TrEMBL record:
It comes from the Bacteria. InterPro entries: Phage_holin_3_6 (IPR009937). The chain crosses the membrane at residues 38-61, 67-85. This is Competence protein. Keywords: Membrane, Transmembrane, Transmembrane helix.
Amino acid sequence: MPGLKDNIEEYIDLQKERLILNVADKSSDIVSAVGVRIAYMTCALFAIVFLSISLAIGINYMANSQFLGFLIVAVLYAVISVLLFKNGEKWFGQYIASEMLDIFYKDEDNEKF
């Protein structure tokens, strides 16, 4: 039966195209999500830098010192860095995995085969 064989080949080709389009869609979702997160992180970094400088200058003013505020802020960042180094994967690993799975499996229930 040439008709059945042709239909099966066409079905397989359509499934390959669907898979390629699905991978392209998920890849673009991941790239856009990463881009947005990078923009958020950049803005947050600038805010933290300027707030840190303001905090250090404020501590300098209250302590009547030229360097004590910057030293205190540096020690604060050192403590935060140690905490992130020791617990960062536990704190952020689950969040990152969850976000990636949400992106990968979004709208999958609505797809029809």
